[in-house]
Amino acid sequence: MSNIVAIVGRPNVGKSTLYNRLTETRKAIVDDFSGVTRDRHYGIAEWVGRSFTVIDTGGYVANSEDVFETAIREQVVIAIEEATVILFMVDVTTGITDLDDEIATLLRKGKKPVFIVVNKVDNHALQSDATLFYSLGLGEIYNISSMTGSGTGELLDEMIKCFDDEPAEENTLPKYAIVGRPNVGKSSIINALIGQERNIVTPIAGTTRDSIHIHYNRYGHEFMLIDTAGLRKKTKVKENIEFYSVMRTIKALEEADIIILMIDAVEGLESQDINIFHLAEKNKKGIVLVVNKWDLIEKNSKTVKVFEEQIMEKIAPFTDVPIVFTSVLEKQRLLKVIETAEQVYENRSKKISTSRLNDIMLPIIENYPPPALKGKHVKIKYITQINGNAPMFAFFCNLPQYIKEPYKRFIENKLRENFNFSGVPIQIFFRQK
Ligand code: GDP
Ligand code: GDP
């Protein structure tokens, strides 16, 4: 299930204000972890229990005047192709500009659901002005004030009706997505894996148009590979390489079980990579880190360790993630990438029996119980794994509200030490018993 909401519109209409409002709480959490200060233009939002990815296209427009309008037009075209729903934002205080008209024309030609979001309708008096935007010819208008949040509820209620609720496809093969910044070597690795024998590759028709799902079935390995790189070369994306690649990445990320995040050994893990990492983590996807172009690094006996430590520091606190050092150029460890993804897939799908879980975890807890709070002792009685796509554990106890973050971390580490969850975000809940 992949639901992506793109906010498009010309500058200053209030896109990033709405984006911030929609992603507020989540964003704070992520930024707390990573210490990344760079602006984030995409993130996870939630409405009545439905989560979706929202992308603020404004963050991807170049500043220079001459490419500016071209860039915006191009973005709208990409958004029409890639997003589930488009929020076309306009500004009640300025009325309809030429660029608004142009965007509307593009959107009318596209086949995606479009919501006209008339922003800055801060008071009743402005509501009659807003009716002007019916003339854009895109149907209903939604008056909101991003600043106060008024009107956003009605908009979101309608918007989620357009979401795709179907399970992605009946195909149950593991899905691996190769993601990463432009130029890290994504196309190269896919070519190296499948290139010589294109005939073993069956592009799956009927999925989202253009989305590249490759059925890999060789040497006893069978899975679907989601390619985020191949397409870029075919479309006429000029001004928006980064936007396009982020869009593809988010989409692949929602569809896949396992994210193979490729980075360039020379450039190291950058803030954009960290953002993708956290998005994968938040989406409870399995993760494999691939450090490519390893051939370009001068190495000694400590190099791998130094790289690993630098990466761990940046992705903390979730550091139980496998790292594979590859050179696509020299065909080094490419199969290892596949095998690692398979291992992570297995880790993510595994179910631990309640008896085994309790046999191992209860003695650990007994040795190191949760600290007492206000003179009260927390007693954990039993543990069970909850059914779901990704590992979740419920710890039943008398006073769940007394368990604090450090103890939760301790429990998570012990689970990781005793059962292999490498590459897999796990969730732990303390419940009343
Ligand atoms: P973007 O360029 O489309 O991302 O626009 P911004 O979100 O940066 O907003 C542009 C300006 O409009 C900022 O000064 C915001 O404070 C202001 N703004 C955004 N939403 C509202 C709103 O609902 N009402 C009013 N009055 N101003 C708003
Ligand atoms: P993408 O944009 O992520 O798909 O990256 P490409 O696969 O197009 O690769 C970008 C450039 O990096 C190309 O010139 C590749 O030949 C080069 N490249 C890819 N893998 C390696 C590698 O392992 N070592 C070196 N030295 N270059 C590589």
Helix and strand topology:
Layout lengths: L3 E5 L6 H20 L7 E6 L2 E7 L8 H18 L2 E7 L6 H12 L4 E6 L7 H4 L10 E3 L8 H8 L15 E6 L5 H9 L7 E2 L8 E7 L2 E7 L13 H15 L2 E7 L6 H12 L3 E7 L10 H13 L7 E3 L8 H16 L4 H14 L12 E7 L5 E6 L7 H14 L8 E6 L1
Parallel strand pairs: 1-3, 1-4, 4-5, 5-6, 7-10, 7-11, 11-12, 12-13, 15-16
Antiparallel strand pairs: 2-3, 8-9, 9-10, 14-15
Helix pairs in contact: 2-3, 2-7, 11-12
Bound molecules: guanosine-5'-diphosphate (GDP) (2 copies).
The site of one guanosine-5'-diphosphate has 16 residues, from helix 6.
Family: Belongs to the TRAFAC class TrmE-Era-EngA-EngB-Septin-like GTPase superfamily. EngA (Der) GTPase family.
Subunit structure: Associates with the 50S ribosomal subunit.
InterPro entries: AAA+_ATPase (IPR003593), G_ENGA (IPR031166), GTP-bd (IPR006073), GTPase_Der (IPR016484), KH_dom-like (IPR032859), KH_dom-like_a/b (IPR015946), P-loop_NTPase (IPR027417), Small_GTP-bd (IPR005225)
Describe the structure.
- It is globular, with a radius of gyration of 24 Å.
- The strands form three sheets. It has a seven-stranded mixed sheet, with helices on both faces. The chain has a six-stranded mixed sheet with strand order 2-3-1-4-5-6, sandwiched between helices. The chain has a three-stranded mixed sheet with strand order 14-15-16.
- The chain has three domains: 4-162, P-loop containing nucleotide triphosphate hydrolases (Rossmann fold, 3-Layer(aba) Sandwich); 175-349, Rossmann fold (3-Layer(aba) Sandwich); 354-432, 2-Layer Sandwich (GMP Synthetase, Chain A, domain 3).
- With 433 residues, it is of the alpha/beta class.
- Helix content is 36%, strand content 21%.
- Helix 2 (65-82) runs parallel beside helix 3 (98-109), helix 2 runs parallel beside helix 7 and helix 11 crosses helix 12 (405-418).
- Residues 180, 182-188, 229, 292-293, 295-296, 327-329 line the site of one guanosine-5'-diphosphate (GDP).
